[in-house]
Design goal:
It is built from 10 helices and 14 strands. It is of the alpha/beta class and 295 residues long. Helix 1 packs across helix 2, helix 1 crosses helix 3 and helix 1 packs across helix 4.
């Protein structure tokens, strides 16, 4: 009997909480599964589980060993799914987290186009202004704006964008056009509270120095669509990534402000855990995004 079979029996026993439930999943008898785990303990020379008539509990050594076994079993399942998937149409679930600005932009339509191309792939999308822990939340892929700080993640650049300041012509006619970042303090600024920048809008001066303007306004919201609608309706000045405004700028619904003070462009990248072997469907999505967004 392969040690992998023993590890599978042990992992399922821990995950389900009993030899009975593990045996049902494996299609084996309870006593046989129990013997497999006992043989594994004997081979390792350590106790992995404490057994009572009511429950199973991990020893200290068992807890450490279980974490390794769980990863190995997950990789085995992925390898099996990948092999089967290579002969069929790509299918399965991709858990994806993206900035809300991506949803609001034309770039968001790329995800819809992907699902038209691969209808058997299900996207579970979480739109958020904050950085979600991919491993903790079991996320397959994240789209992030800016530099990657976590060294446990892999990164593939998809496109460039810059942070812009915009307003509708209606607002500018009533309140004037700011000529310097510091003049924003005299305007009604619409604040997307879901962003890490929030009320602190960064700029670069002609000298190369950076500065932050603490803005104020009568609207703050964690829904980017609501903030964008406020700007489109002449309520105030809005700040965000260029992908969020491109469509409305092209249609002359918004005006670009303070262009000489923007920070250098940053990357929008696809992020995934360093130690995770990507499934075929996730690789397809990354390649699709890279091709479509580079046009």
């Amino acid at each position: 009997m392969s040690v992998l079979n023993y590890m599978e029996a042990f992992t399922l026993a821990v995950k389900t909480g009993s030899f009975t439930a593990a045996a049902e999943q494996l299609g084996l008898s309870k006593s046989y599964v129990s013997k497999q785990v006992s043989q594994l303990e004997s081979d390792l020379g350590v106790r992995l589980l404490y057994r009572t008539t009511r429950k199973l509990s991990l020893s200290h050594d068992g807890e450490q060993f279980y974490q390794h076994c769980k990863l190995i079993m997950e990789e085995a399942d992925k390898a099996k799914a990948e092999a089967m998937d290579s002969h069929d149409k790509p299918s399965g679930i991709i858990k994806l987290t993206i900035p809300q600005s991506f949803v609001l932009s034309q770039a968001g339509a790329v995800l819809i186009k992907f699902q038209h191309e691969y209808p058997n792939i299900e996207l579970e999308i979480q739109a958020s202004g904050s950085n979600v822990d991919l491993i903790e939340e079991s996320i397959d892929l994240a789209l992030r704006i800016g530099e990657l700080e976590d060294s446990t993640m892999m990164c593939r650049k998809l496109m460039d964008c810059e942070f812009q300041v915009v307003a509708a012509q209606k607002y500018l006619e009533q309140h004037g056009v700011p000529s310097q970042p510091k003049e924003l303090t005299q305007h009604n600024c619409l604040v997307y509270s879901g962003s890490q920048l929030n009320r602190q809008w960064p700029f670069r001066l002609p000298s190369g120095e950076t500065m932050t303007v603490n803005v104020q306004g009568n609207l703050g919201c964690n829904d980017g669509q609501y903030i964008l609608n406020g700007a489109l309706n002449g309520l105030g000045i809005c700040f965000g990534p260029s992908i969020m405004f491109k469509y409305h700028l092209d249609k002359k619904e918004l005006c670009l402000l303070l262009e000489d003070y923007y920070l250098p462009s940053v990357s929008i990248s696809a992020i995934y855990p360093l130690n995770r072997n990507l499934s075929r469907r996730v690789r397809l999505l990354i390649d699709f995004l890279a091709e479509e967004l580079s046009r």
